[in-house]
Structures are given as structure tokens and as C-alpha cells.
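User: Can you predict the 3D structure for this chain?
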Amino acid sequence: MVVINFIIENILTQASITIALIAMLGLILQKKSTGQIISGTLKTLLGFQVLSAGSSIIVGSLTYFGQIFTEGFQMEGIIPSIEAINGQAMNELGLGRDIALTFLAIFIFNILLARFTKWKYIFLTGQAILWMATMTTVFGYFAGLRGFVLILVGGFIGAVFAIAMPAMAQPIIRKVTGSNDIALGHFCTIGYLFEAGVAKIFGERGENKKSIEDIKLPAHFEFLQDTYLSVMVVMVPLYIVTVLFAGETFAAELSGGQNYIMFAFLQAIQFVVGVYVLLSGVRLLLGEIVPAFRGIAMKLVPDAIPALDCPVFFPYSPNAVILGFITTTIGTVIAMFTLPMFGLAMILPGMLTNFFAGGQRVFLVMQLGDDEEQSLVESLMASLLPCCQHY
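Assistant: Here is the predicted structure, written as C-alpha cells:
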């Protein structure tokens, strides 16, 4: 048990190491040379670490933004936090061991389902699997399950979600990437597809349908065609206006003696830096993980498709990601005021979720064109029905 806990806590919960080991396994199964195995494994690890570094920079910037936003607009309520829920489940409920074993069970069941069914998706978003392990364990615990049964039930349910979510989104992901090499490994997929369906109904139609990536600007605004400069133009005013509402007294405590407006400006720039680093990591990761994954596809799980976290897809439509962050933030602010009217708790906007999940929502909405031969529902059924028929 000590060895298993060490592997789970120090290896399987570290997404970069897990993916690097999977890449190494794929290269070994392809009988690559020792040099190629070492190179591919380390580049995969490096790519994911660069991606994680970019995410960490963004998290730091958005944490600051969340603080000045809360103070500036005098909002008090509940801030949604996956990490806080995980910590409470492990410490207050004493479910740390069960969550760890459920995490391992999800991974094993995912591989088995991919091997023996027509759903060939291997879910590689480690932090999302940890979240799912926490949720299934907590719900199972309060439903009266304990011990080995709790772990098995939680692991199987989590694995079903881990393989079904990529399958549901794949018709759109295939259209976006132009291939079937990768899938979306995220548990917000149903929400993404719901919004994509709304866009299908109410969005522009015909040959003249416009894309946010094709916006043509006047000559003196051509610099906005650069992804990072366009992000900067949006984020800098957003941060500065918010910090002005927060006031100098509060903001100065966060700036560490630096001018509070200048500090907010630099935090906005940090956000852009984070996006740049994140996308660089994505390019490096995909350059290694997809070829290496073919080894697993050929040996262990024929035709396996790696399901990766949403930032992997951001380079395909970066403008849509930023638009998604802004519009999702607006939507969460509206919901924040609306929920108490119905006697519900006020939920403060989670800026990190708004960026990653909100950006992915609009990203998928932008990609769902009306030139597809199948409707959204038909595409989903085309993905799901073969699996049903298999049983």
C-alpha cells in the first residue's frame, strides 16, 4: 500500500510525469533507439512543464485580478474552488486514501474501456481526473458506500465520464484540428456542446459567415492582428479599470510598495506572458506526444486517441479564447446578482475558470459551422451510437 500511495501521490497525480511516461512507453513499443526514447520522453516532459508554467503565470495574474475585482465591486459570497473541495475531502472527511485509489481506478478502468470498447479515448488531464476522483468519492461516501466498493464504483463512474466526454466533443474537435489525432479531455464538455448547439441555431449562416479570427482592421490597428498584442489591448484596460474601483488603499497592499496602477498594468502584461508561454508549451508537447502515442495505439489500445486539456486547443482560435474569457466573466457577474433573487447563494466569479472553461466554450462555438453535413445532434449520435451497438 505504501508503494501504491507513493506512485499515486508522486507520479500519477503529476500530469507532466504521467504523460512523459506514456510517451516513453509509446516510443518503446515502436522500438525506437535509446536516444530517441530519451529525447522524446524529455521533450514531452519539458513541453508539459512549459505549458504548466504558462498556466501558473496566468493563475497568479488572475488571482490578483480576482482580489481587486472582489474589493472593487464590494462583492461577498462563495468563490468556487476545486482545490478547496479536494482539501476538505482529504482532511475533514479523511478520504485522502480513497481519493488516491479512486484516481488509480479511473485510470485503469479508462484503459480497459478504451481497449475493449469502441471508445478509444485515453484521458490524460491529470488534474481533471483528480477532481473527478474527489467528486465520485465524496458523493459515494455520502451515499453510504465505503472501502473497496466506494473505490470501484467511483473509479468506474469516473472512467465512463473520462471516455464519454472526449467522444461527445470529438466531431467538433476533428473539424477544428483537421485530424483525429487528439481529443478534448475536460469534464465541462456537455456545457461546451450546449453552447455550441445554441450557436448553431442562432449564429450566422451561409457563405458569408464571419470568424473572429478573420477580422480585418484599419491599417493603424493592424498590430491587433498579432495574437499577443490583441490580448494585451483587452487585458490592460480591464485590469486598470478594476484596480481603480478597488482603490489605492486596498490595491497598495497587494502591490508591495509599487504604484498600484503600475502594478496592475504589469499584472496584465504577466497574463499575456502566461498565454505566450502556455502556447509555446502546447506546440512542444504536441510535437512529441502525438507521434509517441501511436506506439500505444498500435500495441495496447488499437486506434487510441489521447484526450488532452483545453489549453492544447487554444492556438487554433486564440481570439475566440479571449472573447470567451470576457463574455463568460460578464455572464458570471450577471449570475452573481441574479442567484440571490431566487434565494440561492451568491457565487463570485472564478476568474481562472472563466479563462480556461469560458475560453474553451467560445472556442468550440466559433468552430461549429453550418457547412457541416450533420447537425450537432447527428454528429454526437454518430460518435455515440457505435459504442451502444457494441453492447
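Residues 369-391 have pLDDT under 50 and may be disordered. Strands lie at 121-123, 183-184, 305-308.
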